[in-house]
């Protein structure tokens, strides 16, 4: 088989890239190691920046998003009982849209199915080859037989544990990493959200986040120990702990119910540089990870592939400038999102070594935010997302 662009991974990065390339008249095939159902079963991000929404519109996949996405003009921060609303729209003229990663993925999958673009789910042993020369290809097994997919370029959209970044010769890659000493326990329930906007809470018992997927479906998170297991956390234990961490007025509004999903995610900051090796490009979680506090993971995946789709269209138009600058341009945006996600994570969580001084620093930072429109603007500008460039 031969295509112009061979994409590894059918997460949001791989599927959105495929759709944008298709829009530009560029043929592509996606290889995914899991089944479509498995990919849709992973509950992850929930907040889309304007840049991600614009890219989905550009790809012609925003119909359901426009009808069902919840535009949010602001969010709340709580330090114990003290609450501060960050008015994103007043501060930046922009807003975010609450629409789950599962829904984005489903819309992209449906679109890919309708356009008849090649997608191989349950592709085993995918391996990139020849990307340092002029004849790159992917080898893989499917249904018990070996296959080869030749392409002009290979794109690693295969997430943090994928094969593409791991195939780059050691020494050609520089990595930067910070692992946080806690995780997030998430719970999804068919209950109305506790508040119309997201609440990011700092408490002495640890961080909490009250989010949502719709007016009927809530998503909550609790900072937890890395040693915790989902089995240890009954629904009742989760709801009781959430009630303790929410500001009292919000806790009074809490509606509980059986969980639809519960999972624990570790928190990590990670960047691999560069994001190109000859004819192999990396995009999304394959190249970088942010802790979820800033809601940037999915949005960075979208902005990477937005830049990459434009660069590849330029290449087929006769200019290599876009692909030559992709890594530099993407990384400039990635590092700013890394900084913001690290800052917001550091402000809102209890660290084992927070101590009295650390706690006072967090409280002083929150006080400063409460009294400074300039500080709120910095936060809001980063939260709604920086321009694609
Ligand atoms: P992924 O979504 O990881 O997609 C990569 C795809 O590649 C997967 O489908 C995988 O199966 C496939 N793949 C991997 N290896 C291979 C291989 N060898 N061959 C073929 N296919 C392969 N972000 C937020 O903003 N908020 C959140 O609350 C949040 N929660 C998260 C919870 C968890 C547990 C995780 C892991 C991430 C979370 N994120 C969150 C981050 C966000 O979901 C990611 O940034 C986003 O999914 C990145 O999209 P992607 O397409 O780059 O990678
Ligand atoms: C979510 O709804 O899953 C969500 C929202 C905001 C975040 C992280 C996760 O910062």
Number of helices: 13
Strand composition percent: 25-35%
| Shape assignment | globular
Q: Give the termini separation.
A: 35 Å
Strand order of the largest sheet: 6-5-14-15-16-13-17-20
* DSSP E strands, number: 20
Secondary structure category: alpha+beta
Radius of gyration: 21 Å
Biggest sheet features: 8 strands, mixed
Q: Give the oligomeric state.
A: single chain
Low-confidence stretches: none
What is the arithmetic mean of pLDDT? Answer: 97
Ligands present:
flavin-adenine dinucleotide, P-hydroxybenzoic acid
Helix content bin? 25-40%
Structural summary, described in words:
The chain is of the alpha+beta class. 38% of the residues lie in helices and 27% in strands. It is built from 13 helices and 20 strands. The strands form four sheets. Strands 6-5-14-15-16-13-17-20 form an eight-stranded mixed beta sheet. It has a six-stranded mixed beta sheet with strand order 8-2-1-12-19-18, with helices on one face. A three-stranded antiparallel beta sheet has the order 3-7-4. Helix 1 crosses helix 6, helix 10 runs antiparallel to helix 11 and helix 12 packs across helix 13. The protein is globular, with a radius of gyration of 21 Å. The mean pLDDT is 97. P-hydroxybenzoic acid (PHB) binds next to loops.
